[in-house]
Amino acid sequence: MTVSHTPPPAWLAIAVKTWFRVRHGGAWPPPSDGPVVFVANHLSLIDAPLIALLAGRRCLVAMHAHPPQHGIAGWLWRRAGVERLDVNDPHQLRDFLHRVRAGESAIVFPEARMSRHGALMKVYPEAAKLVRSTRAPVVPVHLEGTELSVWSPEKAGQPRRWRPRVHVEIGAPRPLAAEGESQGATGNVLGDLLEETRFRALSRWSSVPAVLAETARRLGGGLRVIEDPLGNALTFRRIFIAAAALGERLRRRTDPAEIVGVLLPGVATVPAVLCALWREGRVPALLNPTLGPGPARGALGVAGIRRVLSSRAFVEQADLGPMIRRFEEDGIELIWTEDLRAEIGTGRRLLAALASLRQRRIPRETPAVVLFTSGTEGAPKAVLLSHANLLANVAQLRARTDVAPADRVLTALPLFHALGLTGGLLFPLVCGARTLIYPTPLHYKVIPELAYAHQATIIFGTDTFLAGWGRRADPHDFASVRAAIAGAEPVKPSTRTLWIDRFGVRIIEGYGATEAAPVLALNTPTCDRFGTVGQFLPGIETRLEQVPGIPGARLWVRGPNVMLGYMRADRPGVLEPLTDGWYDTGDAVSITPDGFVTLEGRIKRFAKIGGEMVSLAAVERLAAQTWPEASVAAIALPDARKGERIVLAVVGTQPRRAALQERARAEGLGELLLPAEIVALDEIPLLASGKTNYPELTRRLTEVAQAQAS
């Protein structure tokens, strides 16, 4: 039996496009003649006829399961001219290959089953081998919306509809791979194609408010998406109404395109504040309340900030009076949220409800937020991220992970921390996952209780915070967690062991930078390699630059999530764009042939001892393995004889140099990794993100060395 080259009925294609309100993007239209294989994600029973009708071609479908025989789905299969061939049958497989090579089109679902959550699942190497054997160009297809149809398996937290909106993203035709590639490698190539196409589809919106509005439309504006322990609980509808009301007030007090400082705690109302500023074309600069008055004022100067939005209640509770007085002395205007709320009466609320029904158009490259680098190695810089940067990083995370509306997210990372903003807030909101936000990660006893009460399935943290929460938690507290996502600093083996042994939870480690909005690489539960930070997210280009004497290579990155540029103290408020979009991470990395990234250390965090380059991060890893329960940090101080010497600070144990030597010998490590001096401290200074404050530690240890010398 052969399939006719006559296209499916035009009237049916028009009817289906109209009924599902189909929108398409990418390399449209798909090839109209010649052999081609459409490789697509699989969400519902109507995916195959939908692809065939949109392509205007009758298609062979390689699949194991039998197609629907009855109902609307069965009727669509018959009228769209799609024919299922069981490629497990040698005769049908031979027929399939012959007909595609002869010029017919085919559809292959590499996952071999419908997705349980809407995200990509396992990509079978056999599917890649089949596609390659056709010798036909491959067109990757990403479907979105059919997972909400009544022809899709029911999923927790997602409504099912007869008429969902559908988006179809088409990639450009390309050959899959060379004949000599192995099945495993080709399987990864096929998965990468689908992931890249999914990323492009998920980053198509113009602004953060626009993608939030789309999520609200898909899942319902009345969906409660964020709450906090103070009793604030907001739906998408309430966020948009509050944003419209606050935005109207802020428009009168600020200037167009102005950078406005935001000094607020991490509570459920913050998304409304951010959306209010974005709605009116203002740029929020998220300030760190843990800074002293001087550094905080310095941050305002770097970004050219003249007005700060804050809360009197928060200022009193967090004891920020000295900071506020410093602002006022320097002529900074304070805008209080309490005053704004008092100005919004019933009439303005009604007008805001009407105004919220229409989102304002915001160009993608419009500045969206100012964040400040952590300052682990010197003075902080202001980082300007656009809506395109934030959208790209959220889309990259969605393309790589399977976070869904059924998930419950707990985030306690501060919002002035890039991972707290993008990973802990924007990412779950865009996914429609219910989020519990808490203003500080330092309440080590409270966070586990919140996870237990919220039944959190996803939690964000750093090694420091995850270790602190884990030590104080009951095994039941994190029993519901399926992924603990860590960034900002390397995860110690002792922290991994703690979470595995006590909670049965594997920590998923990633890597990023504030300048990249922030995630660059990420392990996942199904693609995780111990000792690495995972593989680079889709859309990220890399460049490696060898540095003499340092293992690995200096990493440069470019991609849609990489910042617009810096603002520095010597040119306040002036954007310093990147050259050709490339950002120097300052990190030394090694990359395996299959793409897993290992951090070798910061380029600046290498000590030069007698002409040899020694990684301070490697010294810290050795010390952490020697004393798993201790906190450790290594720095380099000047040395008259060898150029530099390594000083190791240890908290929580009485360190013995002999123990460090024994561990180094057991690991086969050289004597160069042994510090010249080990100092026991009461505490290691930390930044608000949980990272070690190396400038402050260097100052303290320098004072200790000077005191000893005198």
TrEMBL record:
Coiled-coil regions listed: none
Alphabetical keyword list: Acyltransferase, Ligase, Transferase
Gene Ontology MF annotations: acyltransferase activity; medium-chain fatty acid-CoA ligase activity
Organism: Phaeovulum vinaykumarii
Stretches assigned to the Phospholipid/glycerol acyltransferase domain: 36-146
Name of the protein described by the UniProt record: Acyl-[acyl-carrier-protein]-phospholipid O-acyltransferase / long-chain-fatty-acid--[acyl-carrier-protein] ligase
Superkingdom per UniProt: Bacteria
PROSITE patterns: AMP_BINDING
BP term (GO), one: fatty acid metabolic process
Family as reported in the entry's similarity comment: Belongs to the ATP-dependent AMP-binding enzyme family.
